[in-house]
Design goal:
The complex is a heterodimer of chains A (about 55) and B (about 425).
Chain A lengths: L5 H9 L6 H35 L1
Chain B lengths: L1 H9 L1 H22 L7 H5 L7 H9 L15 H16 L1 H9 L1 H34 L13 H28 L4 H12 L1 H9 L4 H22 L2 E8 L8 E8 L6 H19 L13 H22 L2 H10 L2 E2 L7 H35 L9 H24 L11
Antiparallel strand pairs in B: 1-2, 1-3
Helix pairs in contact in B: 2-8, 2-9, 4-12, 5-6, 5-7, 6-7, 7-8, 8-9, 9-16, 11-15, 11-16, 12-13, 13-15, 14-15
The chains are: A mainly alpha (about 55), B mainly alpha (about 425).
Chain lengths: ~55, ~425
């Protein structure tokens, strides 16, 4: 429990590497782009499959 | 980024990897649409699945295939469960842990054991899913989703779904080898993305514009918080002595704030959904056990997430091994002697990071649940768990793409993002 002393936790938080807001924005943009690409593939496949299954 | 993308598409090897990954996502969706034999797609379409913890989690990981009782209904869940069980068994049986870390032919053996366990778990799960479909999961539907269900029909459905698990594992392995990033994570990511339209429909169905804005703002804020926290690291400085080099080499050991990733949330949700699932299986009212907005449920969920975060990190993070590894490579942490002092130092840091990281997980999971329930959004497919999965997989996939591009000297997608 000694390792989890509030003072030690506070000190630990002070030395953390924190990404800048700009980098967070860039990463978020990249994540959104990837989601959009994946969503595109998923939607096209879903529509094609729905149409195919509708034939039977 | 557009330049980097053009560069990636010009490079045959990288282009092939991107296409393989996209094709795998597409194939995963194809399997999610093919109904299992003896099921009635028309009857399934007439009703949506009941909202119970573990079942909605399975539906999330299978990209809606579970709710449609398709051949890929089980999605990646049996494999994830098998991997976690094998990891836990490694603690009890050191020989198994040795096999896992061995690599080569022995490492492949461990992989085969995991596949076999995934198949066994998959069959058991599929049998349970098919056996209880009419009476539990789709009990509220006007017509049976498996008409005239007999034992042999259920066994055959279970067998087909188990083959589906095998196909998913093969697909994931193919992506890992010839595509981008880790195959299984990519398929989980695709599953989560596939459930996005359901979320959009749920938000559109909300009564007031204020409620819709509250949901969107919560998701947006949580996404920013997740991206921000997932990038936070404790960088422990390391100094390596090099022969024939005048200067020592300085580097650092990165430790993420959220060391356990999304695993504690999956563990906690699964454990908490057990009483409800058992109650349902015995024909009792499972709803009162799986009331995800009840304060007691939320408090238990939070406590279990913290507990499992410590449990998982204690299994996966080995300070002694890292300390020995640093020492064997002629490295030191400045100001610390090698051996036990280094080990204790790393152990202390991991505990503090895990505590703060687990509290972050509790916040990211509980805040959306509370807000969504307040505004009356039930059956929300996107919550904290899916956001952490999406951000984690997206970043690791981009890093994989970046490493392939770096080999060909192209611009980095994540230039400046560290």
């Amino acid at each position: 429990m000694h390792d989890l002393h509030p003072r030690l936790i506070r000190d630990e938080m002070k030395v953390l590497f924190v990404p800048s807001l700009r980098n967070v924005g860039k990463t978020l943009l990249v994540v959104v782009a990837l989601i959009a690409i994946t969503a595109g593939v998923v939607t096209i496949t879903s529509l094609a499959m729905s149409a195919l299954l509708g034939l039977f | 980024m557009p330049n980097a993308l053009r560069g990636a598409l010009k490079q045959p090897d990288v282009r092939k990897r991107i296409l393989v990954t996209l094709a795998a996502i597409s194939l995963y969706q194809v399997g999610a649409h093919i109904p299992a034999p003896f099921t009635s797609p028309t009857n399934i379409e007439q009703c949506s699945m009941g909202d119970t913890g573990a079942l909605s989690l399975m539906n999330l990981f299978s990209g809606g295939a579970f709710g449609a009782l398709s051949v890929f209904a089980l999605g990646v869940m049996p494999y994830i469960t098998a991997s976690i069980v094998m990891q836990l068994m490694g603690v009890v049986f050191p020989a198994l842990e040795e096999l896992r870390t061995a690599g080569g032919i022995r490492g492949a053996k461990h992989k085969r054991y995991t596949w076999a366990l995934a198949a066994i778990l998959g069959f058991m799960q599929a049998f349970g899913v098919a056996g209880t479909a009419n009476t539990v999961t789709f009990a509220h539907c006007p017509h049976d989703v498996i008409p005239d269900a007999s034992l042999w029909k259920i066994a055959l459905i279970a067998l087909v779904m188990t083959v589906g698990v095998g196909l998913i594992i093969a697909l994931a392995e193919y992506v890992t080898k010839y595509g981008l990033g880790q195959g299984m994570s990519i398929l989980v990511f695709a599953g989560v993305v596939a459930s996005l339209p359901t979320l959009v429909a749920s938000i559109q169905g909300l009564a007031s514009v204020g409620a819709q804005i509250a949901v969107l703002v919560t998701i947006g804020l949580m996404a920013v918080v997740v991206v921000w926290v997932e990038g936070i690291q404790r960088r422990i400085p390391l100094t390596y002595a090099r022969k024939n080099v005048r200067h020592t080499q300085r580097t650092y050991l990165p430790m993420k704030l959220n060391m356990a990733n999304v695993v504690p949330v999956i563990f906690a949700t699964s454990i908490l959904s057990l009483p409800g699932a058992i109650a349902l299986a015995f024909g009792k009212d499972g709803g009162r056990w799986a009331n995800t907005s009840h304060p007691v449920y939320l408090a238990l969920l939070g406590a279990l997430i913290v507990f499992f975060a410590f449990f998982y990190v204690s299994i996966t993070f080995k300070p002694k091994e890292i300390a020995d590894n640093i020492n064997q490579n002629a490295g030191t942490i400045p100001g610390l002697r090698p051996g036990i002092p280094t080990e204790k130092f790393l152990e202390g840091i991991s505990k503090r990071l895990t505590l703060v990281g687990s509290l972050y997980l509790v916040g990211v999971v509980l805040i959306p649940i509370i807000v969504f329930r307040q505004v009356g959004l039930v059956n929300a497919t996107i919550g904290g768990t899916s956001l952490i999965i999406m951000v984690g997989v997206a970043i690791s996939t981009l890093k994989s793409l970046e490493s392939h591009l770096t080999r060909h000297h192209y611009d980095s997608f994540l230039k400046g993002v560290r």
